[in-house]
Amino acid sequence: MDNIYYPFEAEVTDIKKETPTIKTFHFKLAKPVTFKAGQFMQLTVPGIGEAPFTPSSRPGEVQEMEITILKTGRVTDVLHNEVKVGDRLGLRGPFGKGYPIDKFIGKEILIIGGGVGLAPLRSLIYALFDRVDDLKKISICYGTKTTKDQCFKDEYDKWAAMPKTSLNLTIDVLCPDWEGTVGVVTCLLEKDRLDVDVRNSYTVSCGPQIMLKFVTIKLMEVGFKPEQIYLSMNRRMSCGVGKCGRCNIGPYYLCKDGPDLCYADIKDYPNVFD
Amino acid sequence: MKVYFLPDEKLKELIKVLKGLGKVFWSREREITSARESRTKIKIEELEEDAIQDYRIPGFRSYDSFKTFLLPLPSKVAEYPDDEWIDIKNIKQKTVLLGLKACDLCAFSLLDKVFIEDPEFIDPFYKRRRQTLILITSDCTRAGKSCFCNLLGRTPYVTSNFDLNLSEIKDGYLIESGSEIGENILKNLSPVESNEEQIQERDKNRKNVMEELTAQNADFVEAFSNPDILVSEGYKSEEGWNLGRTCVSCGACTNVCPVCYCFTLFDRSQGEGKKSKRFRVWDSCQFKGFSQMAGGLNPRFPLMEQFKNRYYHKFFRFHERYNEYKCTGCGRCIDNCLGDIDMREVLSGIKIEREKVNG
Ligand SMILES: Cc1cc2nc3c(=O)[nH]c(=O)nc-3n(C[C@H](O)[C@H](O)[C@H](O)COP(=O)(O)OP(=O)(O)OC[C@H]3O[C@@H](n4cnc5c(N)ncnc54)[C@H](O)[C@@H]3O)c2cc1C
Ligand code: SF4
Ligand code: FES
């Protein structure tokens, strides 16, 4: 019987600085891992502890994995300040259900990311690119505070050049090196700017809770139904397998049933956004 | 299964047989004397040789809960890298629990649902520990003031899932086996078969305790008729939860509760170049850190949201998933609440408020 609490080894093979507070860690895995876009891992820093992250790399790669991490607390501080190439960390997972990609076939997909929230979405974007023939359209909207906070910058041209794909960026505050949209990410979702067939789409959003809240309000305003809205929800986690009891929204455990949930399923439960 | 009679003086013999099987822990009445008062408390302790002579099975459930035998503290769940399953291999010895009540057994079956009956993820540590336990249950002969198992459709005696069950009657106990282990223990004792009169006495005792419970909980029957619906539909009722305002977030309720199992994983370094250890420690939804996320955001804030969560998990979430309430009705949380909060009254409070609103 497997010990669900035991982390297997993952060696850091590269660390890439994305922004002043976000780094992408590249891992070589001690055993092959097959994950679906949206499923997450528990990353162990030996002796310090674990924190949950969704891989940002292409799901098909089973010996390697990338995880993009914002520096924000105990575990992530150590990851940013002390972990170096060659270090051996631990991983458990994958956990959760991942995005319902099969549902997306034949539809337009509207992807909305904020800050480090683009990390899990990048893995979804790769997965969707692999099936671009089966999709109607892929629209990516991404918002950050400033241009300095944008992750995966060197990939934007490639993404925008993909068939059926559009990429729209916005920053919250005006920067001298920026000629694009200024405003929070919901401004990309205004009716006059949104080039999607609302009735034939699904939306997938990942970012801070407050962003998810206002994105959801805006999406409903422009005509999306709760059934079309998928959200990567955030809750504190520990076990990853629905046992430690903390990561629920209503009866759903994010670690087991999510972390991406359909708004229609959760909207009536307490404390969804606050 | 046949029911046998074990005269008082033979209880010692039974305990001797149990001792031969493994470490024995019993629930036992104890005089606790402090400067202020002296009172009797029922506590779980390791068997003491000297105490066997005068040992009686207590009339109702112990003050503390038996969950420590399945979810002990601390509990090492991994050493990495190169986990060698050290802890699991060490869990070999049988442990005999003597004097469990129906609510204690009910708690085990609820915990089983989470830790071993969930086909996706079986907890290897819990499973192993569960297999090493020998369970000797006993009928309640009276109801504690805070007991309310009847409100949840449960009874103060058991009819299955035990190894042996004892029912106190005049001059001794009726004893019944519920498993092969129980059967073998019985063989060692060569007890006499019980007679019709003794069975009737047992059934009458059971009925009496049930009546005692019915009488003391009569006011709460309505509130417990569909607690899942009550707690979910009444979640937003401001006034309804008023009794929770004296909660000071101490976590006593979740600690003493035999079915509160929420935990956190906690890693400890043993020094440079050495293996690290991972422990599972009890946690409590009544603590702020239980749900607080990076950046300080907490979906269970303010304190009232934490307070409600305990009820929400017990009566709604758990029920949605497992079709059972995550409460045995043992009343331990009532006895131990610093804010003097009675779960029965809380549910009634919500019920009354909802009726006011809905007319
Ligand atoms: C499913 C999921 C996927 C995520 N993916 C990413 C990602 O790709 N990139 C990224 O930068 N961040 C991601 N996060 C958020 C990330 O888990 C937290 O930023 C991280 O746990 C903070 O850990 P810390 O020890 O540095 O912070 P502290 O605030 O010191 O937290 C202490 C501990 O609390 C727990 N914890 C704290 N915040 C969270 C949280 N938001 N969610 C779950 N547990 C938490 C962790 O176990 C953590 O070790 C994800 C969260 C979830 C739930
Ligand atoms: S919630 Fe209270 S009454 Fe119910 S099992 Fe736990 S301690 Fe006993
Ligand atoms: S992380 Fe433990 S229940 Fe979800």
Give an account of the 3D structure.
The complex is a heterodimer of chains A (274) and B (359). By secondary structure, chain A is α/β, with parallel strands linked by helices. Chain A has helices at residues 74-81, 101-104, 118-130, 156-161, 209-221, 254-257, 263-266; strands at residues 8-19, 22-29, 40-45, 49-53, 64-70, 88-95, 108-114, 137-144, 165-171, 181-182, 201-206, 229-232, 248-249, 252-253, 260-262. In chain A, the strands form 3 sheets. A 7-stranded mixed β-sheet of chain A has the order 10-9-8-7-11-12-15, sandwiched between helices. A 6-stranded antiparallel β-sheet of chain A has the order 4-3-6-1-2-5, with helices on one face. Chain A is globular. Chain B has 2 domains: 3-216, no CATH class; 223-358, no CATH class. Chain B has 11 helices and 11 strands. An 8-stranded mixed β-sheet of chain B has the order 3-2-5-6-7-8-1-9, with helices on both faces. Chain B has a 3-stranded antiparallel β-sheet with strand order 4-11-10. In chain B, strand 10 and strand 11 form a beta hairpin. The A-B interface holds A 1-7, 9, 44, 46-50, 72-73, 76, 88, 90, 209, 234-236, 238-239, 241-246, 248, 250-251, 256, 270-271, 274 and B 77-78, 80-81, 83, 85, 88, 114-115, 118, 120-124, 127, 235-236, 261-270, 276, 278, 280, 283, 285, 290-295, 297, 299-300, 305, 308, 312-313, 316-317, 320-321. Bound molecules: flavin-adenine dinucleotide, iron/sulfur cluster (SF4) and FE2/S2 (inorganic) cluster (FES). FE2/S2 (inorganic) cluster (FES) binds next to loops of chain A. Residues 237-240, 242-247, 253, 255 of chain A line the site of FE2/S2 (inorganic) cluster.
Major beta sheet, strand line-up of chain A:
10-9-8-7-11-12-15
Strand order of the largest sheet of chain B: 3-2-5-6-7-8-1-9
What is the share of helical residues of chain A? 10-25%
Count of DSSP strands of chain B: 11
How many domains make up the coordinates of chain B?
Answer: 2
Oligomer classification: heterodimer
Report the total helices of chain A: 7
Distance between the termini of chain B: 52 Å
Stretches with pLDDT under 50, minimum 5 residues of chain A: none
Report how far the terminal alpha carbons of chain A are from each other: 39 Å
Total DSSP E strands of chain A: 15
Strand-pairing-aware structural class of chain A: alpha/beta
- Output the CATH homologous superfamily of the largest domain in chain A: Nucleotide-binding domain of ferredoxin-NADP reductase (FNR) module
The CATH architecture assignment of the largest domain in chain A turns out to be 3-Layer(aba) Sandwich
Ranges of chain B where pLDDT stays below 50 over 5 or more residues in a row are none
Mean pLDDT of chain A: 95
Using the coordinates shown, work out and report the CATH topology of the largest domain in chain A.
Answer: Rossmann fold
| Main beta-sheet strand count, sense and barrel state of chain A | 7 strands, mixed
Which range does the strand content of chain A fall in? Answer: 25-35%
